[in-house]
Amino acid sequence: MKKRNPWLQTLFWIFVSFLTLFPIYWLFVVSVKPAVDLFTTPEILLSEFYWQNYVDVWTDRTLRGYMMNSLIISSGNALLSTALGFFACYALTRFRMGGKESIFFWTITNRMAPPAVFLLPLFLLMTQVYRVGDFTLLDTRIGMILVYCTFNLPFAIWTLRPTLDGIPRELDEAAFVDGASSWKVISEIVFPLCRPGLAVTLILTWVFAWNEYLLAATLTNFSARTLTTGLSEYVTTTGTEWGIMAAISVFTLIPALIVFTLVQRHIVAGLTFGAVKG
Amino acid sequence: MQSNRLGWILLAPSLLILFLFGVVPFLYVAWLSFHQWNPFAANPDIIYNGAENFRRLVFDAAFLASLGVTIAFVFFAVVSELILGYVLAQAFMKDFPGKAIFRTIHTLPLIMAPIIVGSIWKLMTTPSIGIIPNLLDTWFGLDLNIGQSAAAAFAVTVIMDVWHWTPLVTLTLIAALVSLPPDPFEQAQIDGANKRQIFWHITLPMIAPAVVATVFIRLMDALRTVDEVLMLTGGGPGSATRYLGVHIFKEVFPRTNYGYGSAISVIVLYLTIVACWLLYVSMLAPRNQK
Fold first, then answer.
1. Does residue A277 form part of some domain?
2. Which residue numbers delimit the ABC transmembrane type-1 domain (chain B) (predicted)?
3. What is the mean pLDDT of residues B218-222?
4. Is residue B179 exposed (0-12), middle (13-18) or buried (19+ Cβ within 10 Å)?
């Protein structure tokens, strides 16, 4: 083969990276401009920074409430999904239960279904069926934590399974022979060995919950609204507050970006149900 | 071997949650699809009306139009992503300065919330403030207005999807290309095969399982696209970008037509299940060959 200059490749990738990064850069540009300047000729390079949009978002009580909700819902859901997924995988890999492979596949079908299909039934169930007296799950944080399990719990089960499969059963069995209880085996032998897998699962489920929009938009009104739904509230028929919208977007983006640096290698495995190891 | 009872106890919470928030809604929507129910209509009761909803659906121009644009969107987006993803994956197979950094940058869009992607592209393409319409106007005198031109809105949603998801295709194809053995390629070169022959007769058949799996994953995700399109165009102008997910969202909530909305949901779910089944088969087949 012909030897090409490797710097040509680099030049090509600088171009590709520019295409990838420019939209994100433009988001930042809009977020640090006063509203009046937006409608003049767009300039690509910034001469001055206008931070008021960020201050407005940060000091807005409602938006801070949304931020808090997002934080609580995604953290609660990530912990719940990962914990339940861990127990489920332990059961699926350590016991000879009838039909367990069917159960395993069935779990992922819950994630494959388009969320739009479930909007209506979930809305009706949460207002009319899943209720205790006057308390309904609609517009509550606990309700959203449970609803997000429909996509995050199957994901946790599928990504944790290879980890648990990789831990030799002889290890548990040896501990049983020594007289350890089931709980002791899970908490002191299996759990420590699963930590890396659990960490990745926890982080990815957190991001998926943090990024969710459609279900939050329909199943919450005010008290459990998340940051992603707050974003759409600034797009109205009477006029969009572009700067504020961009600033909220940046706020929503930052945690995901931080997390991204932690689990970069695992993202592809996460998005392909573990079919591809990145 | 521990007792199976413990196994079921550990599995029970997961199954219970998935049953309550996955299976029950499904059964409920299936049941409702055979009924007429609009709580804010003159008659707010739930009335059994057999297959009437489905009969209406088959002749519903709005639904068929939505199905049509969805198929067009999925086709253009997935095909572009495959071609671009393959070219980029091949470009990654050589060593060059800065490879790791470029890989990181290229992966970046994958982690972004669809709603954020939608808002970014809205900021870029909205005529009064966006950079793209402005540059197209000053450089080429072209008028890009996604609020008025159906073709422009459609194209921008496709480009947005390509920007967001091509990295997934690139990375899955890199994984496939890296795992290929070098022998067949060396042999083909000795036999004097040209680049095109090598691609069609060696590379493509060998990475086919990965390509098929990637296609179905993208297919499934593209079929359920809602957030970014809702944010970017809201399904408009007219119904140019009213993809199925957007259609359901718009049909069900403002109109509270619960029975009919359920019927649409059931059909869309059915289409997805068919796609999922194909995905499952295509992903299992390569594993079983090993």
1. no
2. 63-279
3. 82
4. exposed
Residue A138: its pLDDT value, please?
86
Domain presence at residue A13: no
Q: What is the pLDDT of residue B131?
A: 82
Closest alpha carbon within chain B to A26: B124
Task: Spell out which residues of chain B touch residue A16, defining contact as CB-CB under 8 Å.
Answer: 88, 102, 106
Confidence of residue B84 (pLDDT cuts 50, 70, 90): very high
Give the residue, A134 or A238, on which the prediction is more confident.
A134
How sure is the predictor about B279, in pLDDT bands with cuts at 50, 70 and 90?
Answer: low
CA distance A133 to chain B (A): 19
Inter-chain residue contact B258 with A211, CB threshold 8 Å:
no
Upper half-sphere CA count for residue B236 (Cβ side, 13 Å): 10
pLDDT number for residue B276 = 66
> Looking at the 3D structure of chain A, how many domains does it have?
1
- The answer to whether the CB of B283 falls within 8 A of the CB of B47 is no
Inter-chain touch A253–B129, beta carbons under 8 Å:
no
Name the residue of chain A whose CA is nearest to B107's CA: A264
Residue A276 belongs to a domain: no
CB pairs under 8 A between A and B: 278
Sign of CA dihedral B38, A127, B233, B272: negative
Give the minimum alpha-carbon distance from A123 to chain B in angstroms, rounded to a whole number.
9
pLDDT at A85 over 90: yes
Give the range of the structural domain holding residue A164, as residue numbers without chain letter.
23-271
Question: What does the pLDDT read at residue B260?
Answer: 84
pLDDT of B280 strictly over 70 = no
Highest-confidence range of B37-51, B122-136, B145-159, by mean pLDDT?
A: B145-159
Query: Which among A23, A116, A146 is the nearest to B21, CB-wise?
Result: A146
Of B279 and B268, the one with more pLDDT: B268
pLDDT of res. B222: 85
The reply to whether A11 falls in a domain is: no
Cα A94 to Cα A91, A173, A263, B8, distances in angstroms: 5, 10, 28, 11
> Interior CA angle at B52 toward B46 and B53, to 5°?
75
pLDDT above 50: residue A273: yes
Cα A63 vs. chain centroid, distance in angstroms? Answer: 19
Do A9 and B253 make contact, defined as CB atoms within 8 angstroms?
A: no
Gyration radius from chain A CA atoms: 23
Residue A278: per-residue pLDDT: 47
Residue B109 is classified by DSSP as: G
Work out the minimum CA distance from A75 to partner chain B, whole angstroms: 16
Interface mutation target, options A33, A276, A277, chain B, most CBs of B under 10 Å: A276
- Residues 6 or more apart whose CB falls under 8 angstroms from that of A137 comprise A126, A130, A131, A143, A146
Domain range B20-289, its CATH number among 1.20.1530.20, 1.10.3720.10, 2.40.30.10, 3.40.50.720: 1.10.3720.10
